[in-house]
Amino acid sequence: MQQPPIPMARKIRMALIGGGGQAFIGPVHLAAATLDQRVQLVAGALSSDPERGRQAAAAFGIAPQRAYDSYRELIAGESELPAEQRVDFVTIATPNDSHFEIARAAVQAGFHVVCEKPMTTDLGQAEQLAAMVKERGVVFAVAHPYAAYPLVRQIRQMVAGGDVGEVQAVRIHYIQGGLRRVQPEAAQQRAAWKLDPYRMGPSGTVADIGTHAFHLARYAAAFEPVEIACQLATFHPVRPLEDYGHILMRGAQGNLALLTLSQVTHGRLNDLTLEIDGSEASLVWRQEDPNVLTVRRHGQPVQFYECNRRADYLEPQVQAVCRLPGGHPEGFLEAFANLYAAFLNDLGDRLTGHAAASPGTGYPSVIDGLEGVRFVEACISSGRSGGWWTPF
């Protein structure tokens, strides 16, 4: 069970890199990080356009002298400040191609990091970054907030405790439609960079949402693949990267997982569904209805578990991350805040000179980021071979 954080006499200082202008994910990171009143945003390099970055910094309440024109200036400037003033961690909310260089610079300077997924666009870079994080001893989280929903954590505990028996199959469908409306010539559109292979890296949908699905399979169902077979397709009329895929994974015990990914399905928003078939029970959870977990056992009535901090049938560590009384819906921001809370617990322990009680267990770590990049490369390799099984 996750231990309570050691109290700090001050707020933890945050810098945000990227996330200004029309960006979606930057403000989400800020809202999640500050929801529990433990963090203060004090610095930022919010856009590749310095003027837009300064405008965004003013809107975010960042003082002009700490609104930097680039991540390089931010890391250099903050490193020169006295320890009692400089930021404690940086959040990286930029396009994929810059994750590695920013994270590497931050880790080298001794800053702790929250990084958007995919952690890097290259497996060699991911391995290098994981080694650097271990060497420097920084706290490093990767932004997979879906695993921080209370009922996903309940699923994890039920699987680990044997409540579903042997996990025989996992199905995850992650279906979106947003790319249908994105056109590359519309530079002002928030997601237009996702059509650019230079900014995205070698993968489109697998890197963008497939990494979430893969992490969910590993986290919730403890599924570790040994082989991957992948069929990818591109249906967007001008996108050079895949926007649809079926990914079959085989585990060491012969258990199977199937991931279906789409970003071009008309009318779908963020339909992430997790299903687990066990020898004793089956489970279903949907991100668009995240406060309900459906449990089925042959010959018994269907059970519905609800997100409720007073529900005795939930594991104690799950009750602890249900933030509201029953009947008050909790959603994406609360889940993202749960990820940040676990990260901040470890970070607070580090800042107060204590070893974390269970480092990296409550949030996706640099190792999870590494495994996500390995998954992307395996999918690309299998897809290019026509869908042959690829060792993982």
Biggest sheet features: 9 strands, mixed
Provide the spatial order of strands within the biggest beta sheet.
Answer: 13-12-11-10-6-9-8-7-14
Query: What is the string of SSEs from the N terminus onward?
Result: EHEHHEHEHEHEHHEEEEEEEHHHE
Number of helices: 11
CATH topology of the largest domain: Dihydrodipicolinate Reductase, domain 2
Descriptive overview:
The longest helix has 20 residues, at 332-351. β3, α4 (99-108) and β4 form a beta-alpha-beta unit. The protein folds into 2 domains: 12-145 and 339-364, NAD(P)-binding Rossmann-like Domain (Rossmann fold); 146-325 and 372-384, Dihydrodipicolinate Reductase, domain 2. The radius of gyration is 21 Å and the shape is globular. The model has no long low-confidence stretch (mean pLDDT 93). α1 crosses α10 and α5 (123-136) packs antiparallel against α11. It contains 11 helices and 14 strands. It has a 9-stranded mixed beta sheet. Strands 2-1-3-4-5 form a 5-stranded parallel beta sheet, sandwiched between helices. With 392 residues, it is α/β, with parallel strands linked by helices. Helices cover 33% and strands 22% of the residues.
